[in-house]
Specification:
CATH topology of the largest domain: Four Helix Bundle (Hemerythrin (Met), subunit A)
Shape: globular
Distance between the termini: 28 Å
Helix content: 40-55%
CATH architecture of the largest domain: Up-down Bundle
Number of strands: 6
Strand order of the largest sheet: 4-3-5-6
Order of helices and strands: HHHHEEHHEEEHEH
């Protein structure tokens, strides 16, 4: 079964995720977020550094679409990141900065034909590549932000259709590219969510033997968070069948860059 989201759904979802980022920064009751809070999923980063990264990433996605050059990636990320308000200026200032960049990128996606030529991580591609990529970038880092500020129990659930597409993008579009810079998987990982299945192939042994297998089933959001290294194999709702030791070794090494 396909996990393809319509363009309208992608636009609606990224707008919602960006809005949640701003809401988390502004805080309930107008009390701004503590920008010095550490972000467990991004060791060494504070909330301020996380949002500066995310705002820059959101801008860059839109910039690649605006450049409309399938051969060259957009430049200027450092200047955008350096334009983020200092932590001393407070959470409201950072929220406004972030919202301006995210809204500008979303407007670009809405105004550009989805098949317009652009540069992508996989080479020349379509403009809607960046709408999808930045939706999932925002969704994962929104979870990081909420978790840093309120704990895992305080995170906003990700809708199943979006989470399924997060898994699909990871397994079919990103992992094949990232795998070149990562250790070979010691185990073949089968990911199942309802009627959907994805396979991350493990490395063959020196004697040509196929890699052992492990199967993961569970809620789409939990599976997506596991692939991106946000939760472990013991996360609530996950079922693990097969070589759990191999799975834990793969997760310890990291499935993503």
């Amino acid at each position: 079964m396909s996990t393809d989201l319509s363009r309208e759904r992608l636009l609606d979802a990224i707008e919602a995720q960006a809005g949640l980022v701003r809401f988390a920064l502004e805080g309930a009751g107008g009390e701004g977020a503590d920008l010095s809070s550490p972000v467990a999923a991004c060791p060494g980063w504070t909330v301020h550094e996380l949002v500066a990264h995310l705002g820059t990433a959101n801008w860059w996605g839109g910039a690649n679409v605006r450049e409309a050059n399938p051969e060259v990636r957009a430049r200027g990320m450092r200047a955008v990141m350096e334009s983020a308000p200092a932590a001393t200026e407070g959470a409201d200032a950072l929220a406004r900065w972030y919202a301006g960049l995210a809204e500008g990128a979303i407007e670009t996606y809405a105004e550009t034909e989805p098949d317009a030529p652009v540069w992508t991580f996989a080479g020349p591609g379509r403009a809607d590549y960046w709408l999808r990529r930045q939706l999932h970038e925002t969704a994962v880092h929104r979870w990081d932000l909420e978790c840093a500020l309120s704990g895992e129990a305080g995170t906003t659930p990700l809708m199943d259709d979006v989470a399924l597409d997060t898994i699909d993008e990871f397994c079919t579009a990103l992992r094949p590219i990232m795998s070149a810079a990562l250790p070979p998987l010691p185990v073949t990982i089968r990911v199942r969510a309802g009627e959907h299945e994805w396979v991350l192939p493990g490395a063959e042994g020196e004697d040509g033997q196929t890699a052992p297998e492990v199967e993961l089933t569970g809620p789409p959001e939990t599976l997506a968070l596991l692939l991106w290294g946000r939760v472990g194999s013991d996360a609530e709702g996950l079922e693990v069948t097969g070589d759990r030791r191999g799975l834990d070794a793969a997760l310890e090494a990291g499935l993503s860059i």
